[in-house]
Inverse folding.
């Protein structure tokens, strides 16, 4: 399904051109609670001008050096931040109220200093001003389907414009930096092969994949001689994955099912799940790890790829409605390494291998962002308006900045059943 939105001729966003029906919270700045805009003005100006940034607010003379923060409409900018914090900061970018000559560089500086942007006394009052996560985004069976639909069913054509030909929507593994666009397919295959090797996937093995994507891992596993069952909640992904698998002549080795991980049946020699845990939600992590345990046969192996963040940051984020959860990944939450270990152990699993490579994700996102920007006209032709394009650019730059600042990491983990706990019933 393609989202039908207006299509301006260029990527600039004039406030009068924003479709208020599609973007109600972007079309006009909110009325910030009394005094909040003034407080935001003082705090933000003091914070950003102390960082290595080139800042300009309206007609004031610029200050500092580094990536630029050029605020075209300071009143709207501070009203949004005063009313909605970092959600307002992202919405202000979507509305065209500020720009940067190096968006990723700017967001990297902010990510690296995120703990110092708000004075410590005010951080202790965080619960009084941040928005809580909406109950509607809870990843129940119905909620998970809706959350997945909102992102992954936007348009297969949209994702094809900025991903490489493997249609892999997760971090690649590169051999050289900086990475070049032509190296992305090989980097994605290198990532997949490492996971399949971790899980010992080969001829005659049965493999369960939780989170199909567009089918590249299933294709590669089947080409090794494995028998693959792969599950997804995205109808768009299922449709295209099946087509790609059939075109490769591997339909007899791969079943692509529209199925929730909570409804899995049978046991498999290997289980692989790539960057799917982030969509599970904290409330359901115990269920997810129990499903992994129940799906793997005795002596089998589980290979996971997961984005992670620091544990304290995760605890704060788990209670907060963020710009990412509002506009990009509803219901999503990035786990910490500690949370993965605790929930694995709680399900009777143990981590026997763990390797992080966040720099590779920064490179992957940089290439995606570059391709997306180059394809602005084609994105518009699919029906995605200038506000959507600025939203997606902000999302890709924001994510890349998280990895460059080491606020985020990505890890490949191998899990096995903890035999010290005794045999399963």
């Amino acid at each position: 399904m393609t989202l039908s939105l207006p299509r301006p001729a260029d990527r600039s966003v004039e406030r009068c051109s924003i479709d208020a029906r599609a973007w109600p919270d972007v079309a006009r700045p909110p009325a910030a609670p009394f005094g909040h805009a003034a407080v935001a003005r003082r705090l933000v100006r003091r914070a950003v001008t102390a960082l290595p940034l080139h800042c300009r607010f309206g007609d004031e003379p610029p200050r500092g050096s580094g990536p630029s923060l050029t605020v075209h409409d300071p009143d709207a900018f501070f009203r949004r931040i005063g009313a909605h914090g970092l959600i307002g900061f992202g919405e202000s970018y979507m509305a065209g109220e500020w720009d940067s000559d190096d968006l990723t560089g700017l967001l990297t500086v902010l990510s690296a200093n995120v703990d110092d942007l708000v004075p410590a006394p005010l951080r202790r009052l965080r619960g009084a001003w941040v928005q809580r996560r909406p109950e509607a985004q809870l990843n129940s069976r119905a909620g998970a389907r809706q959350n997945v639909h909102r992102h992954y069913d936007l348009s297969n054509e949209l994702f094809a414009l900025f991903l490489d030909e493997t249609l892999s929507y997760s971090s690649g593994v590169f051999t050289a930096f900086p990475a070049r666009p032509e190296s992305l397919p090989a980097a994605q295959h290198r990532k997949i092969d490492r996971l399949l090797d971790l899980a010992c996937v080969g001829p005659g093995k049965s493999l369960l994949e939780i989170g199909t994507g567009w089918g590249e891992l299933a294709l590669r596993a089947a080409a090794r001689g494995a028998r693959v069952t792969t599950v997804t909640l995205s109808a768009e992904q299922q449709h295209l994955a099946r087509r790609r698998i059939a075109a490769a002549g591997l339909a007899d080795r791969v079943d692509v099912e529209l199925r929730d991980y909570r409804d899995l049946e049978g046991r498999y020699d290997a289980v692989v799940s790539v960057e799917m845990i982030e969509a599970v939600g904290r409330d359901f992590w115990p269920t997810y790890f129990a499903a992994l345990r129940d799906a793997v046969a005795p002596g089998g192996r589980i290979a996971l790829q997961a984005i992670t963040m620091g544990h304290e940051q995760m605890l704060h984020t788990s209670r907060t409605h963020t710009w990412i959860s509002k506009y990009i990944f509803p219901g999503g939450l990035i786990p910490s390494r500690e949370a993965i270990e605790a929930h694995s152990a709680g399900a009777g699993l143990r981590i026997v291998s763990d390797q992080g490579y966040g720099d590779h994700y920064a490179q992957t996102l940089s290439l995606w962002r570059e391709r997306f920007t180059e394809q602005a006209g084609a994105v518009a032709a699919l029906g995605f308006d200038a506000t959507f394009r600025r939203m997606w650019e902000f999302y890709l730059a924001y994510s890349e900045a998280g990895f460059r600042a080491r606020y985020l990491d990505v890890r490949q983990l191998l899990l096995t059943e903890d035999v010290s706990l005794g045999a399963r019933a």
Q: What stands out?
A: Residues 31-130 form one domain.
